[in-house]
Amino acid sequence: MPATKPSVAIIGTGIRTLSMIFLDLPKTETALELGRKLALETGRRVTVRDQEGAILSVFEPATPN
Q1: CA distance 56 to 50
Q2: Beta strands 18-23 and 55-59: pairing type?
Q3: b or e along 48-62 (b: 16 or more beta carbons within 10 Å of the residue's beta carbon)?
Q4: Whole-angstrom Cα distance, residue 20 to residue 2?
Q5: What local confidence, expressed as pLDDT, does residue 57 receive?
Q6: What is the pTM of this model?
Q7: Which of the residues in the chain have pLDDT under 70?
Q8: CB atoms near residue 1 (< 10 Å)
Q9: String of b and e for 13-34 (b: at least 16 CB within 10 Å)?
C-alpha cells in the first residue's frame, strides 16, 4: 500500500521546543477544534496546516489573567 500524506499537521511551539502531530482526519473542523483545545490546555501557540502545508488556522496560547 503506498504511503499517503496525512490530511492535517498540528504544530505546537513553545519557548525552546517544537512539537508536531500528523493526523489523518476526515473533517477540517475536527482538526481546528483539536488545535484550539491544544493551545488552551498546553499554553502553546498551535498552527494547523493542511496536507499541502497551507496554514488553516493559528491558535494563540491562553494567557493567565
Answers
A1: 7
A2: unpaired
A3: bbeeeeeeeeebebe
A4: 22
A5: 92
A6: 0.73
A7: 1-11, 13-15, 64-65
A8: 3
A9: eeeeeeeebeeeeeeeeebbeb
CB-based contacts of 27, cutoff 8 Å, min separation 6:
none
How far is 13 from 44, CA to CA, in rounded Å? Answer: 6
Amino acid at 58: V
Q: Are strands 8-13 and 18-23 parallel, antiparallel or unpaired?
A: antiparallel
Q: Which three cell numbers stand for residue 9?
A: 499537521
What is the spatial distance between Cα 34 and Cα 23, in angstroms, rounded to a whole number? 11
On whether the CB atoms of residues 10 and 38 are closer than 8 A, the answer is yes
